[in-house]
Amino acid sequence: MTLHRFFVAPQTIRDNRVVMRGTVVHQIRDVLRMKPGDSFVLLDNSGWAYRTEIVTIDREALRGRVVDKWTPATEATARITLYQGLLKGQKFEWVLQKGTELGVSAFVPLVTAHCVISSLSSITEARLERWQKIIVEAAEQAGRAILPRLSPAMLFTHACERAAHSGTWSLIPYEGERSLGLRQALQRVPRAKEINLFIGPEGGFAAEEIALARERDIVPVSLGPRVLRAETAGLATVTAILYELGDLG
Predict the structure, then answer these.
(1) 232 C-beta neighbours (distance < 10 Å), count
(2) Vertex 132: Cα angle to 93 and 8 (nearest 5)
(3) What tens digit of pLDDT does each residue of 45-77 get?
(4) Pick from 31, 123, 176, 212: CA 20 to 30 A from residue 183's CA?
(5) Cα 174 to the center of its chain, rounded Å
(6) What is the pLDDT of residues 133-151, one digit of tens each?
(7) Do 141 and 3 form a contact (C-beta atoms < 8 A)?
(8) Which of 205, 247, 249 lies closest to 230, judged by CA?
(9) β-bridge partners, 57
(10) Contacts (Cβ under 8 Å, ≥6 apart) of 106
(11) pTM of the model
């Protein structure tokens, strides 16, 4: 039977003793109906997993003990940072959820020329908190031991500068690219361990954005003859990269 998994702050676990408070206790006690003697898995975002047995639980706190500890082999071999153009409605949240499940290591929300959101000030703290919650829940479901990092949103120009100075290989799928396909690009650096991936919003990237990307050594690639939706392109590319690098078995 698969055990429920919960990310917690590192200080929750001390010398194999566990003390939990807050909403997660309500979830375990009142939603999942767990009781003393039942077990679940705690994750402290360090790469370790801790099978924990409940000792006592009430409305205020859960106390437990660690009965096993291991390092799950669930992180992708390639660290992919997904620079995703902001999308309409809940599509961006869907990308965060599914990207986390696939193994994306970090997300950077992008404001580009064709985004429905044109200003960084439009991205509120409440929205960032919701995005972080989506990532946590998806990581728990997927069995990951390390949470993908969610960076503050940034303008496309700043993101290009950041990628250029990162020393990391960068790709930007673009429907106007005709000479270089994704697979060909990956074969040029077959053992890449870190990749920056730029994905545009609805409407794609503007021509001047692609020109800037080229200047910053961000390589435009084709994803084939069909035009993918903005919420599909990033996930399809992440899947293809991980497969090509042997991460999907």
Answers:
(1) 17
(2) 140
(3) 999 999 999 999 999 999 999 999 999 999 998
(4) 212
(5) 22
(6) 999 999 999 999 999 999 9
(7) no
(8) 205
(9) 62
(10) 79, 80, 81, 82, 148, 149, 150, 151
(11) 0.92
Whole-number Cα distances in Å, 247 to 56, 92, 226:
40, 24, 25
Which tokens sit at 131? 């995005």
Tell me which H or E stretch contains 219. strand 219-221
DSSP SS3 for 155: strand
- Distance CA(132)–CA(49), nearest Å, equals 20
Residue 81 has, within 13 A of its CA and on its CB side, a CA count of: 19
Distance CA 215, CA 210 (A): 9
Burial of 74 (0-12, 13-18, 19+ CB in 10 A): middle
C-alpha distances (whole Å) from 55 to each of 14, 19, 44 are 15, 10, 20
Burial class (CB in 10 A: 0-12, 13-18, 19+), 225: exposed
3-class SS of residue 94 = helix
Nearest alpha carbon to residue 85 among 170, 202, 176: 202
Per-residue tokens: 32? 């999942």
Question: Any residues with CB less than 8 A from the CB of 32 and at least 6 apart, and which?
Answer: 4
| CA separation for the pair 76, 105 (Å, rounded) | 8
